[in-house]
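Holo prediction. Input below; ligand is NAP.
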Amino acid sequence: MSAIFPRVALIGLGLIGSSLAHAIRRAGLADTITGYARSTETRAKARALHFCDAVCETAQEAVRDADCVILCAPVGAFAELAAAIGPALKPGAVLTDAGSVKMAVVRDVGPHVPDGIHFIPGHPIAGTEQSGPESGFAELFDGRWCILTPLPGADGEAVARLTSFWQGCGSRVEIMEPKHHDLVLAITSHVPHLIAYNIVGTAADLEEVTQSEVIKYSAGGFRDFTRIAASDPTMWRDVFLNNREAVLEILQRFTEDLTALQRAIRWGDGDALFNLFTRTRAIRRSIIAAGQDSPQPNFGRTPPASG
Ligand code: NAP
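Structure of the complex:
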Protein backbone atom coordinates (compact mmCIF):
# COMPACT_ATOMS: atom_id res chain seq x y z
CA MET A 1 0.00 0.00 0.00
CA SER A 2 1.30 3.53 -0.70
CA ALA A 3 1.75 5.99 2.16
CA ILE A 4 -1.51 7.61 3.28
CA PHE A 5 0.40 10.19 5.33
CA PRO A 6 4.04 10.74 4.25
CA ARG A 7 5.06 11.57 7.85
CA VAL A 8 3.29 10.32 11.01
CA ALA A 9 4.18 11.47 14.55
CA LEU A 10 3.31 9.29 17.55
CA ILE A 11 3.16 11.11 20.89
CA GLY A 12 3.35 8.38 23.54
CA LEU A 13 5.23 5.17 22.73
CA GLY A 14 3.57 2.55 24.93
CA LEU A 15 1.29 -0.33 23.90
CA ILE A 16 -0.80 1.76 21.49
CA GLY A 17 1.96 4.01 20.10
CA SER A 18 4.36 1.11 19.45
CA SER A 19 1.59 -1.12 18.01
CA LEU A 20 0.64 1.70 15.65
CA ALA A 21 4.26 2.03 14.52
CA HIS A 22 4.43 -1.71 13.79
CA ALA A 23 1.06 -1.64 11.96
CA ILE A 24 2.11 1.44 9.92
CA ARG A 25 5.34 -0.29 8.88
CA ARG A 26 3.56 -3.55 8.08
CA ALA A 27 1.25 -1.82 5.59
CA GLY A 28 3.55 1.00 4.44
CA LEU A 29 1.06 3.64 5.60
CA ALA A 30 3.79 6.28 6.13
CA ASP A 31 7.26 6.95 4.71
CA THR A 32 8.56 8.28 8.03
CA ILE A 33 7.47 7.68 11.64
CA THR A 34 8.65 10.03 14.37
CA GLY A 35 7.94 9.49 18.06
CA TYR A 36 8.14 11.08 21.47
CA ALA A 37 7.61 9.74 25.01
CA ARG A 38 7.89 11.57 28.32
CA SER A 39 10.79 9.77 29.99
CA THR A 40 14.35 9.34 28.74
CA GLU A 41 14.03 5.67 29.70
CA THR A 42 11.06 5.05 27.38
CA ARG A 43 12.67 7.05 24.59
CA ALA A 44 15.83 4.94 24.93
CA LYS A 45 13.80 1.70 24.84
CA ALA A 46 11.90 2.91 21.78
CA ARG A 47 15.17 3.77 20.01
CA ALA A 48 16.55 0.30 20.78
CA LEU A 49 13.39 -1.33 19.39
CA HIS A 50 13.67 0.66 16.09
CA PHE A 51 9.93 0.94 15.44
CA CYS A 52 10.27 4.70 14.73
CA ASP A 53 12.58 6.31 12.20
CA ALA A 54 13.38 9.00 14.79
CA VAL A 55 12.59 9.27 18.51
CA CYS A 56 12.73 12.98 19.36
CA GLU A 57 13.68 14.75 22.58
CA THR A 58 10.58 16.97 22.54
CA ALA A 59 6.99 16.61 21.34
CA GLN A 60 7.35 19.79 19.24
CA GLU A 61 10.30 18.29 17.40
CA ALA A 62 8.39 15.05 16.77
CA VAL A 63 5.35 16.78 15.21
CA ARG A 64 7.35 19.17 12.98
CA ASP A 65 6.36 18.57 9.31
CA ALA A 66 4.13 15.62 10.29
CA ASP A 67 1.05 15.09 8.11
CA CYS A 68 -0.67 13.13 10.86
CA VAL A 69 -0.08 13.43 14.62
CA ILE A 70 -1.54 10.76 16.92
CA LEU A 71 -1.68 11.36 20.69
CA CYS A 72 -1.05 7.97 22.34
CA ALA A 73 -0.35 9.12 25.92
CA PRO A 74 -2.79 8.78 28.87
CA VAL A 75 -5.71 11.20 28.36
CA GLY A 76 -4.81 13.19 31.50
CA ALA A 77 -1.69 14.42 29.65
CA PHE A 78 -3.52 15.60 26.52
CA ALA A 79 -4.22 19.24 27.51
CA GLU A 80 -0.57 19.93 28.26
CA LEU A 81 0.66 18.05 25.20
CA ALA A 82 -1.80 19.84 22.89
CA ALA A 83 -0.72 23.22 24.25
CA ALA A 84 2.92 22.30 23.61
CA ILE A 85 2.52 20.95 20.06
CA GLY A 86 -0.25 23.30 18.79
CA PRO A 87 2.12 26.03 17.48
CA ALA A 88 4.45 23.44 15.89
CA LEU A 89 1.78 21.61 13.83
CA LYS A 90 2.09 21.73 10.03
CA PRO A 91 -0.81 23.56 8.34
CA GLY A 92 -3.24 21.02 6.85
CA ALA A 93 -2.10 18.20 9.19
CA VAL A 94 -4.51 15.73 10.79
CA LEU A 95 -4.39 15.73 14.59
CA THR A 96 -5.98 12.67 16.16
CA ASP A 97 -5.62 10.49 19.27
CA ALA A 98 -6.16 7.00 20.62
CA GLY A 99 -7.64 8.07 23.98
CA SER A 100 -10.27 5.89 25.62
CA VAL A 101 -12.66 8.81 26.30
CA LYS A 102 -13.79 11.38 23.78
CA MET A 103 -15.77 14.26 25.37
CA ALA A 104 -12.82 15.15 27.61
CA VAL A 105 -10.41 14.97 24.67
CA VAL A 106 -12.55 17.42 22.69
CA ARG A 107 -12.64 19.66 25.80
CA ASP A 108 -8.90 19.46 26.54
CA VAL A 109 -7.35 19.39 23.05
CA GLY A 110 -9.89 21.45 21.06
CA PRO A 111 -8.87 24.88 22.43
CA HIS A 112 -5.22 24.33 21.43
CA VAL A 113 -5.87 23.37 17.80
CA PRO A 114 -4.84 26.17 15.41
CA ASP A 115 -6.94 27.03 12.34
CA GLY A 116 -6.13 24.86 9.34
CA ILE A 117 -5.46 21.70 11.40
CA HIS A 118 -7.93 18.82 11.02
CA PHE A 119 -8.66 17.65 14.57
CA ILE A 120 -10.43 14.27 14.42
CA PRO A 121 -10.59 12.43 17.77
CA GLY A 122 -10.38 8.63 17.60
CA HIS A 123 -10.30 5.49 19.72
CA PRO A 124 -9.13 2.03 18.66
CA ILE A 125 -11.16 -0.58 20.56
CA ALA A 126 -8.17 -2.87 20.91
CA GLY A 127 -5.79 -3.41 23.76
CA THR A 128 -4.18 -5.77 26.21
CA GLU A 129 -3.29 -5.49 29.89
CA GLN A 130 0.36 -4.86 28.91
CA SER A 131 1.93 -1.43 28.65
CA GLY A 132 5.19 0.13 27.50
CA PRO A 133 7.10 0.20 24.20
CA GLU A 134 8.02 -3.53 24.29
CA SER A 135 4.38 -4.60 24.45
CA GLY A 136 3.32 -3.42 20.98
CA PHE A 137 2.62 -5.70 18.01
CA ALA A 138 1.40 -5.06 14.45
CA GLU A 139 -1.71 -7.27 14.69
CA LEU A 140 -3.26 -5.47 17.69
CA PHE A 141 -5.84 -3.63 15.54
CA ASP A 142 -6.66 -6.48 13.12
CA GLY A 143 -10.42 -7.03 12.95
CA ARG A 144 -11.05 -4.56 15.80
CA TRP A 145 -13.19 -1.45 15.56
CA CYS A 146 -11.78 2.05 15.60
CA ILE A 147 -14.27 4.79 16.49
CA LEU A 148 -13.75 8.27 15.04
CA THR A 149 -15.68 11.21 16.51
CA PRO A 150 -15.22 14.10 14.04
CA LEU A 151 -16.58 17.44 15.20
CA PRO A 152 -19.35 19.27 13.31
CA GLY A 153 -17.93 20.81 10.13
CA ALA A 154 -14.96 18.41 9.97
CA ASP A 155 -13.28 18.17 6.57
CA GLY A 156 -14.67 15.10 4.75
CA GLU A 157 -11.45 14.42 2.88
CA ALA A 158 -9.40 14.43 6.11
CA VAL A 159 -11.89 12.06 7.78
CA ALA A 160 -11.74 9.77 4.73
CA ARG A 161 -7.92 9.74 4.85
CA LEU A 162 -7.87 8.92 8.55
CA THR A 163 -10.46 6.19 7.93
CA SER A 164 -8.23 4.64 5.23
CA PHE A 165 -5.27 4.89 7.61
CA TRP A 166 -7.04 2.89 10.33
CA GLN A 167 -8.30 0.39 7.78
CA GLY A 168 -4.67 -0.01 6.66
CA CYS A 169 -3.82 -0.81 10.31
CA GLY A 170 -6.35 -3.67 10.09
CA SER A 171 -9.31 -1.94 11.79
CA ARG A 172 -12.92 -1.48 10.87
CA VAL A 173 -13.99 2.14 11.30
CA GLU A 174 -17.19 3.60 12.75
CA ILE A 175 -18.16 7.28 13.10
CA MET A 176 -19.90 8.33 16.35
CA GLU A 177 -20.81 11.38 18.43
CA PRO A 178 -18.28 11.85 21.30
CA LYS A 179 -21.01 11.71 23.98
CA HIS A 180 -22.44 8.48 22.61
CA HIS A 181 -18.93 7.01 22.40
CA ASP A 182 -18.39 7.71 26.10
CA LEU A 183 -21.64 5.99 27.10
CA VAL A 184 -21.00 2.94 24.89
CA LEU A 185 -17.47 2.61 26.26
CA ALA A 186 -18.67 3.07 29.85
CA ILE A 187 -20.70 -0.15 29.59
CA THR A 188 -18.40 -2.15 27.30
CA SER A 189 -15.04 -1.23 28.84
CA HIS A 190 -14.89 1.26 31.70
CA VAL A 191 -17.39 -0.28 34.14
CA PRO A 192 -16.14 -3.85 33.43
CA HIS A 193 -12.64 -2.63 34.34
CA LEU A 194 -13.98 -1.01 37.52
CA ILE A 195 -15.74 -4.24 38.49
CA ALA A 196 -12.53 -6.20 37.90
CA TYR A 197 -10.46 -3.73 39.94
CA ASN A 198 -13.07 -3.95 42.69
CA ILE A 199 -13.37 -7.73 42.92
CA VAL A 200 -9.61 -8.22 42.85
CA GLY A 201 -9.29 -5.53 45.55
CA THR A 202 -11.99 -7.25 47.64
CA ALA A 203 -10.25 -10.62 47.34
CA ALA A 204 -6.92 -9.05 48.30
CA ASP A 205 -8.50 -7.60 51.45
CA LEU A 206 -10.38 -10.74 52.62
CA GLU A 207 -8.91 -12.00 55.84
CA GLU A 208 -10.77 -15.33 56.11
CA VAL A 209 -9.36 -16.52 52.79
CA THR A 210 -5.61 -16.43 52.63
CA GLN A 211 -3.80 -14.81 49.72
CA SER A 212 -2.28 -18.14 48.74
CA GLU A 213 -5.77 -19.71 48.49
CA VAL A 214 -7.00 -16.88 46.26
CA ILE A 215 -4.09 -17.54 43.92
CA LYS A 216 -4.23 -21.34 44.14
CA TYR A 217 -7.94 -21.61 43.31
CA SER A 218 -8.11 -18.67 40.88
CA ALA A 219 -9.09 -20.86 37.91
CA GLY A 220 -12.62 -20.88 39.38
CA GLY A 221 -13.21 -17.50 37.67
CA PHE A 222 -11.16 -14.99 39.65
CA ARG A 223 -8.13 -15.12 37.34
CA ASP A 224 -10.16 -13.84 34.38
CA PHE A 225 -10.82 -10.64 36.38
CA THR A 226 -7.15 -10.36 37.30
CA ARG A 227 -6.16 -10.01 33.63
CA ILE A 228 -8.30 -6.88 33.33
CA ALA A 229 -7.30 -5.64 36.79
CA ALA A 230 -3.63 -5.80 35.74
CA SER A 231 -4.20 -2.95 33.25
CA ASP A 232 -2.12 0.23 33.43
CA PRO A 233 -2.98 2.24 36.60
CA THR A 234 -2.23 5.68 35.09
CA MET A 235 -4.29 5.09 31.97
CA TRP A 236 -7.27 3.78 33.93
CA ARG A 237 -7.13 6.50 36.59
CA ASP A 238 -7.36 9.02 33.75
CA VAL A 239 -10.25 7.15 32.10
CA PHE A 240 -12.40 7.29 35.26
CA LEU A 241 -11.52 10.92 36.00
CA ASN A 242 -12.44 11.88 32.44
CA ASN A 243 -15.61 9.83 31.82
CA ARG A 244 -17.25 10.50 35.17
CA GLU A 245 -20.78 11.18 34.01
CA ALA A 246 -21.25 8.13 31.77
CA VAL A 247 -19.48 5.78 34.21
CA LEU A 248 -21.65 6.96 37.12
CA GLU A 249 -24.80 6.57 35.01
CA ILE A 250 -23.95 2.96 34.06
CA LEU A 251 -22.81 2.18 37.63
CA GLN A 252 -26.21 3.32 38.93
CA ARG A 253 -27.92 0.80 36.62
CA PHE A 254 -25.38 -1.87 37.57
CA THR A 255 -26.00 -1.35 41.28
CA GLU A 256 -29.78 -1.65 40.82
CA ASP A 257 -29.37 -4.89 38.84
CA LEU A 258 -26.96 -6.26 41.45
CA THR A 259 -29.50 -5.52 44.18
CA ALA A 260 -32.13 -7.44 42.18
CA LEU A 261 -29.75 -10.42 41.97
CA GLN A 262 -29.10 -10.19 45.71
CA ARG A 263 -32.87 -10.31 46.27
CA ALA A 264 -33.26 -13.32 43.95
CA ILE A 265 -30.59 -15.23 45.90
CA ARG A 266 -32.10 -14.22 49.27
CA TRP A 267 -35.62 -15.36 48.26
CA GLY A 268 -34.49 -18.48 46.41
CA ASP A 269 -35.81 -17.16 43.09
CA GLY A 270 -34.04 -19.73 40.87
CA ASP A 271 -36.03 -18.73 37.78
CA ALA A 272 -34.75 -15.14 37.94
CA LEU A 273 -31.16 -16.38 38.18
CA PHE A 274 -31.60 -19.03 35.47
CA ASN A 275 -33.25 -16.56 33.07
CA LEU A 276 -30.49 -13.98 33.47
CA PHE A 277 -27.71 -16.55 33.06
CA THR A 278 -29.39 -17.86 29.89
CA ARG A 279 -29.54 -14.35 28.40
CA THR A 280 -25.91 -13.62 29.26
CA ARG A 281 -24.74 -16.87 27.67
CA ALA A 282 -26.36 -15.73 24.41
CA ILE A 283 -24.37 -12.48 24.55
CA ARG A 284 -21.09 -14.44 24.75
CA ARG A 285 -22.18 -16.40 21.65
CA SER A 286 -22.96 -13.17 19.76
CA ILE A 287 -19.47 -11.80 20.54
CA ILE A 288 -17.92 -14.96 19.07
CA ALA A 289 -20.25 -14.79 16.05
CA ALA A 290 -19.14 -11.14 15.50
CA GLY A 291 -15.49 -12.29 15.36
CA GLN A 292 -14.57 -10.36 18.52
CA ASP A 293 -13.34 -13.42 20.47
CA SER A 294 -12.21 -16.99 19.98
CA PRO A 295 -14.78 -19.82 20.15
CA GLN A 296 -12.20 -22.07 21.85
CA PRO A 297 -13.14 -23.18 25.36
CA ASN A 298 -11.42 -21.33 28.20
CA PHE A 299 -10.31 -18.53 25.80
CA GLY A 300 -8.08 -21.06 24.00
CA ARG A 301 -5.78 -21.50 27.00
CA THR A 302 -3.73 -24.66 27.12
CA PRO A 303 -3.52 -26.28 30.54
CA PRO A 304 -0.16 -25.74 32.28
CA ALA A 305 2.26 -28.67 32.14
CA SER A 306 1.79 -30.83 35.22
CA GLY A 307 4.52 -31.70 37.68
P1 NAP B 1 1.12 2.96 27.91
O1 NAP B 1 1.56 1.65 27.35
O2 NAP B 1 1.18 3.16 29.39
O3 NAP B 1 1.97 4.12 27.19
C1 NAP B 1 1.76 5.46 27.46
C2 NAP B 1 2.82 6.27 26.74
O4 NAP B 1 2.54 7.66 26.94
C3 NAP B 1 4.24 6.05 27.26
O5 NAP B 1 5.13 6.08 26.19
C4 NAP B 1 4.45 7.24 28.18
O6 NAP B 1 5.79 7.62 28.30
C5 NAP B 1 3.72 8.31 27.42
N1 NAP B 1 3.36 9.44 28.27
C6 NAP B 1 2.80 9.43 29.49
N2 NAP B 1 2.62 10.69 29.93
C7 NAP B 1 3.10 11.50 28.98
C8 NAP B 1 3.22 12.89 28.84
N3 NAP B 1 2.82 13.72 29.80
N4 NAP B 1 3.77 13.36 27.71
C9 NAP B 1 4.19 12.54 26.73
N5 NAP B 1 4.11 11.21 26.80
C10 NAP B 1 3.57 10.70 27.91
O7 NAP B 1 -0.39 3.30 27.49
P2 NAP B 1 -1.25 2.75 26.26
O8 NAP B 1 -1.93 1.50 26.67
O9 NAP B 1 -0.40 2.75 25.03
O10 NAP B 1 -2.37 3.89 26.18
C11 NAP B 1 -2.16 5.06 25.44
C12 NAP B 1 -3.50 5.73 25.14
O11 NAP B 1 -4.31 4.84 24.38
C13 NAP B 1 -4.31 6.13 26.37
O12 NAP B 1 -4.91 7.37 26.14
C14 NAP B 1 -5.36 5.04 26.46
O13 NAP B 1 -6.55 5.56 27.04
C15 NAP B 1 -5.56 4.66 25.00
N6 NAP B 1 -5.97 3.27 24.76
C16 NAP B 1 -5.43 2.25 25.49
C17 NAP B 1 -5.85 0.94 25.25
C18 NAP B 1 -5.29 -0.21 26.06
O14 NAP B 1 -5.91 -1.26 26.17
N7 NAP B 1 -4.13 -0.10 26.65
C19 NAP B 1 -6.80 0.67 24.25
C20 NAP B 1 -7.29 1.74 23.50
C21 NAP B 1 -6.88 3.04 23.77
P3 NAP B 1 6.62 7.21 29.63
O15 NAP B 1 6.78 5.73 29.57
O16 NAP B 1 7.88 7.94 29.41
O17 NAP B 1 5.81 7.68 30.80
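The radius of gyration is 21 Å. That is the main takeaway for now.
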